[in-house]
Amino acid sequence: MIPALVITAFVLIFLFLLVGFFYGEIRDFFEKHYYKRKVYKVLHYYAEENDQLLINNVVIYLPGDDENHPTKIDHVLLADKYVYVIDDYYAKGGLYGNLSDPYLFLKNYKGKIIKVPNAVSQNFHKVMSLEEALSVNYSDKLLVSVVVFNNSLIVPKGIARKNQDSWFLPVKDLEKTIKTAEKDDVPPIHHDKSEKLVHMLLDRSNKTKELIGKSTKSNKNKIEE
Predict the structure, then answer these.
(1) What are the domain boundaries of the chain?
(2) How far apart are alpha carbons 61 and 210 in whole angstroms?
(3) In which element (H, E) is residue 54 found?
(4) Which CATH number fits domain 36-218: 3.40.50, 3.40.1350, 2.60.40, 3.90.1600?
(5) pTM here?
(6) 115-166 pLDDT tens trace
(7) Measured between alpha carbons, how far is 70 from 64 in angstroms, rounded to an integer?
């Protein structure tokens, strides 16, 4: 009769080998499903520790938007020096191309290359439209476009960026980059201005979500009829 200890050891060795064999798939699974939450936790922690304002899942109509397609913003962090307009970006493989082009190229682990929309350019133009909607002067350099990608995504140095008004960086660099930016020698945002921006964003977002909800309900009723 085989001792229970030997069986346990055999099972553990088998599990270790199994996990090692499927390590890449397991890592990708957890990163894909918890990536957005990880970005949120970094921002939420920073906002809590530094008494900042964080808004998530903003849905508003910006200049040029179609009636049925409002703009979605994953996070807006109103800090002391800047307002960070943040978009989550998840992909597997390596990202290549020119950030001035409307599309980039994503090469997966099997070597297949596909063309994908340029999230950096999209978010930057989103920020410009948001400035127009909120009557914020671009010359004030108040809003910063931030696209945060998952840590496993391979991004060449020529694409990753941390310019004053546009960032494209992994989530592991997000907090420290915000802390560095907040040390800039620029005038802080007045509290009343931050409060005004927050109320405007929340008010517009709530109204947009309400309109979308009514439209969805109306379309559902028409289908049922």
Answers:
(1) 36-218
(2) 12
(3) strand 53-60
(4) 3.40.1350
(5) 0.82
(6) 999 999 999 999 999 999 888 888 788 999 999 999 999 999 888 888 888 9
(7) 9
